[in-house]
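B., you asked whether I could sanity-check this one before it goes into the benchmark set. Here's the sequence:
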Amino acid sequence: MKRIAFYAPVKPPDHPIPSGDREISRLLVKAMERAGHDVTLASRFITYQKRPGRELFETRMGGAEAETGRLVAAYKAMSDELRPQIWFTYHTYCKAPDTIGPVVAKAFGIPYVTAEACRTRQNTDADWQAGREIVQGAIRQAAINFCLKPSDREYLETVLPAMNTVINLPPFVDEELITANSKPKAVLPFANNDPVIVTTGMMRPGKKFLCYEYLAKALKKLPDHRWNLVLIGDGPEREKIEYLFSGLPQDRLYWAGLVAPEAVHGLMAAASIFAWPGYQEPIGMVYLEAQTLALPVVAMASLGVPTVVGDEETGLLSAEGDVVAYAANLERLLKDENLRARLGKAGPGRIHQRNGIQAASTMLSNHLEQL
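And here's what the prediction gave me:
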C-alpha cells in the first residue's frame, strides 16, 4: 500500500462541473483506492487557462508557487508515517502545467508520476511555449508516465530520450457502477416502437457544436428511415443546436437536458444505438459507457476514438468529417436489427477485458508498488 498525493491541474475530481477530465480523475483515484492505496487530494489549485496570455499565465504560476509553499510546509509538519510516498498528477499539459508536484516531489525525495501528460495543438507553438517547457521538465522528472492514448505516446517520444518511463494505460470505466446506474431503464416519451438513437455532449462552441451539426446533417440524409433521438446535454449553444435539428420531425426528438450520470445511463439503457461523431475527441469516455451498456456505437475514426471503439466489433467508424459515410453507418444500424444486436452484445465483454476498472487497478498498482 502506498500513500499517494493526487493532483489534477485542469480540474480536481470534486469539481462541480462535469467533464471527461473530471471523470477520468475520479476513476484514477477509485482504481488506486480499489488496490488498497491511500489516495488524498493534494490540491484543488487550477492552473488551466483556456486562451494564451502572458499576464494570466504569470498570475497562475504565482498562485501555484504559493500553493507549493503551503504544501511543503504542511508535509514537513507531518510524520514520516503520514507524509505522501508518491505524487501523482493527472493531465498536465501546455494549458495546465504542473509546477507544484515536481517541486514537492523533489523536496521530499518521493517519485513523481504523471498520467495523460500531453500538449495542445491549438494556437501557435509560441503561444504555449512557457507551459510546454514546464510540462516537458515534469515528464523528464517522472518515474512513470502513464499514457492513455496513442497521440500522447507520440508526443512523449519527442520529449524523452528513452521511453522506459512510459506505461500504456488503456482508458477505463467502472462497468459495475454504470450497469447499476442504468436500472431501471428510463421511460422515453415516444409514441412508437422505432429504434432509439441516444447522443450526449455538452452544448458548447467548437468541437462539441460541430459534432451535433454532423449528427443533424446525417439524420437529414435519412428521410425514409424511422427513428427516435434522445439528446442529453445543455450549455450556451443549446438554442443554436436546437435550430440544427429544426428540420427533423420534432415528435421524434427528446431534449433531456443536463442530467445526473445515473440518469444518463438509464437513458442509454433504454436506447438502441449510441451516436456521437466524436470529431477530434481525445478519448471519449462516453463510448466506453455506451459499450458497457451493450449499445452499438456510431462514431468517426478521429484521434482517440478508434482506441476505445472496435470498428465492426462494437461499433461502426467512418472517416473524420465524412458526414455521408457517417449517415451510411447510421442507416446500416437502423435497417439491420441483427447487426445492432451483434455489435451491442460484444461491448460489455470488450470493456471488461480491456477497459474495466479492475484491469486498470491491477496495472496501476503493479507499477506504483515498484516505486
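One thing to flag: The chain has two domains: 3-172+356-368, 176-354. Otherwise nothing jumped out at me.
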